[in-house]
Design a protein that fits this description.
- By secondary structure, the chain is mostly helical.
- The chain is 59% helix and 5% strand.
- It folds into two domains: 14-162 and 174-419, no CATH class; 428-563, Transcription Regulator spoIIAA (2-Layer Sandwich), CATH 3.30.750.
- Strand 6, helix 20 and strand 7 (521-525) form a beta-alpha-beta unit.
- The N and C termini lie far apart (65 Å).
- Residues 1-9 and 566-577 have low confidence and may be disordered.
């Protein structure tokens, strides 16, 4: 029996190994703070998807337990997330369109099944080592998408903060409906929401040591109990179930499983994309490394345990993780402590949570959505690349115009279009030398750099594939036509070329034949092993000749000088491109 063995079951509690007893006090303190911050969002976020408030508590408890079991990070805290909830809401809307008679209990089952599907996708992606799928959505496109999601969430709170029943979807239609129903606005609800929103913004600008949502929940709850907001017509959370549901695996035969699986894929892309960005940003602060495949297992366990408690899909939470780091949490014991505190709150204090006014929770959601809008990030993208800024706007418009679920598709398509456009036009630059110095330099960088008479060296900055072959060929032929009539060699520097395909190989062979007819020899430099194998298979390596395939440009120059003595005189100043 070999020393190595196949590990079929991941190690449990990896973030707690080893654990130091002196960490316990810090972890418990951090857990209490995480729970305090988590309660407002746990109660408010389910409203985005039309789910009852208690499901947010269940998701918050189940997710930290699941992540602690398999998650690799010591300090990352998972839980409900605004962007994930927005995509979940879109999936729930699709389900309701097909089955309009669903009860709220059945809708909760659908959300739990969706969470299981997301968890299974996470495990499958981890097993297939697809952690790099986190890069599927680029940062500019995610920035635009999240702004679109934030605007959708804000519009979705109109009914909750005004007391007006809004039946329209989209961006402009709800605003138009509100204008038509302006006479039905419940002004005490709107005044309460505006007051709570103002408090949140004041605390954000001038921190007082207590998170704004905690202040709002405590103040709104006290005011609701003292002045009987329910009797004033202000909607409240209402009765919550006490305790926790028993662990169970959600299943409902009548639900459209195919739509839920497709919806789970969309939730997975957004939740893992945003979750891994959160993980990496906090890992930079703590100087830790992030293993996306290991995080997939942690997110998978978090989603499945959340579902087994009657919760919904979750991902990493930036606000809870930030609190954990600020208070000094060391391990996932902080998350487990937060989960325990939330369980106690549900068991003994659910009756106190029932009086929380809905407009105050709407104000929390609006404030949370505004925090997702990264205008400074957009400005930075504008400064760096106008093209990337344009794709950020496309992604934002997709989420606003077509809805969050279709917006995911728009964001993914925009990503692929952006990648294809980048790959379609790799730079092809001329290389030369600086008299008296070693090495080769890009000709356009400095007037000191001189091209070697008779020797044309072209550096292709990227792979050579079917989508860019035409562009590269046109550029190479343009360079040859612009060179002096005494050009005798064309050396293609392939050091940045990791991939070629059959279209590119056919182009290279055609170019070689045309150059040969003009008396110009074509060679290759620093060909990578995979590309070299393809060149041998298709016969281009033999046609070019082993003597024209070089390991570095100094060898190519030496061979050129040996073949044509005196050709390496760099004192002349030949035409430049």
């Amino acid at each position: 029996m070999t020393a190595r063995r196949l590990v079929l079951v991941p190690r449990l509690l990896p973030s707690l190994r080893p654990y130091r007893p002196e960490w316990l006090t810090s972890d418990i303190s951090a857990g209490l703070a995480i729970a305090a911050v988590g309660i407002p969002s746990a109660i408010a976020y389910p409203a985005i998807a039309g789910l009852p408030p208690e499901t947010g508590i269940y998701a918050s408890i189940g997710s930290v337990v699941g992540y602690a079991l398999l998650g690799p990070s010591r300090r990352l805290i998972v839980g409900p997330d605004a962007a994930t909830m927005a995509v979940l809401a879109a999936v729930m809307a699709t389900v309701l369109q097909q089955m309009p008679g669903l009860s709220q209990a059945e809708l909760v089952d659908a959300a739990s099944i969706l969470s299981v599907c997301v968890g299974l996708i996470c495990f499958a992606a981890s097993a297939l080592k697809l952690g790099k799928i986190a890069s599927l959505l680029s940062r500019p496109i995610l920035a635009g998408f999240f702004i679109g999601v934030a605007i959708s969430i804000i519009v979705g709170q109109i009914g909750r903060v005004t007391g007006v029943t809004i039946e329209s979807d989209g961006l402009l239609r709800p605003l138009a409906e509100l204008a038509r129903k302006a006479g039905a606005v419940h002004w005490p609800s709107l005044l309460l929401a505006l007051t709570m929103f103002a408090i949140l913004q004041i605390v954000r600008v001038r921190p007082v040591g207590i998170p704004g949502p905690v202040i709002v929940v405590l103040l709104a709850g006290v005011l609701s109990a003292a002045f009987d907001f329910e009797a004033m017509g202000i909607r409240i959370v209402g009765n919550l179930p006490t305790g926790l549901p028993s662990l169970s695996f959600p299943f409902h035969a009548g639900l459209p499983l195919a739509d839920l699986v497709l919806g789970a894929a969309a939730v997975f892309v957004v939740s893992f994309g945003s979750g891994i960005i959160t993980a990496r940003s906090f890992a930079e602060r703590t100087r830790e490394t992030v293993d996306p495949n290991a995080e997939l297992r942690g997110f998978g366990a978090a989603n499945i345990v959340s579902a087994m408690l009657g919760g919904f899909a979750v991902t990493s939470s930036d606000s809870r993780t930030a609190v954990n780091l600020a208070v000094g949490g060391k391990t996932q014991v902080a998350g487990l402590t937060a989960g325990f505190v939330l369980a106690v709150a549900m068991a003994f204090f659910a009756s106190y949570l029932r009086v929380l006014p809905i407009p105050a929770l709407g104000a929390i959601l609006i404030s949370a959505a505004l925090s997702v809008i990264d205008l400074e990030g957009l400005r930075q993208i504008w400064r760096i690349s106008r093209v990337e800024f344009g794709f950020a706007l496309i992604s934002m418009a997709g989420a606003i115009s077509f809805g969050v679920l279709k917006g995911v598709v728009v964001a993914i398509v925009a990503t692929f279009v952006y990648v294809i456009l980048k790959e379609m036009h790799p730079k092809v630059v001329l290389l030369g030398r600086i008299p008296g110095r070693t090495g080769f330099y890009k000709l356009h960088r400095s007037a000191e750099i001189r091209q070697i008479p008779g020797l044309v060296i072209c550096f292709i900055q990227g792979d050579l594939l079917f989508l860019n072959t035409e562009h590269v060929e046109a550029r190479l032929r343009e360079i040859i036509s612009e060179q002096a009539a005494d050009a005798r060699w064309l050396i293609i520097d392939a050091s940045a070329m990791a991939q070629v395909d059959s279209t590119a190989l056919s182009m290279l062979e055609g170019l070689r034949r045309d150059l040969d007819a003009r008396g110009i020899r074509m060679g290759l430099n620093e060909v990578q092993s995979g590309v070299a194998l393809l060149l041998e298979r298709c016969g281009i390596a033999d046609a070019i000749g082993g003597e024209m395939i070089f390991d570095d440009l100094d060898d190519a120059l030496a061979a050129f000088e040996a073949a044509a003595p005196g050709a390496a005189d760099t004192s002349a100043d030949p035409p430049r491109t």
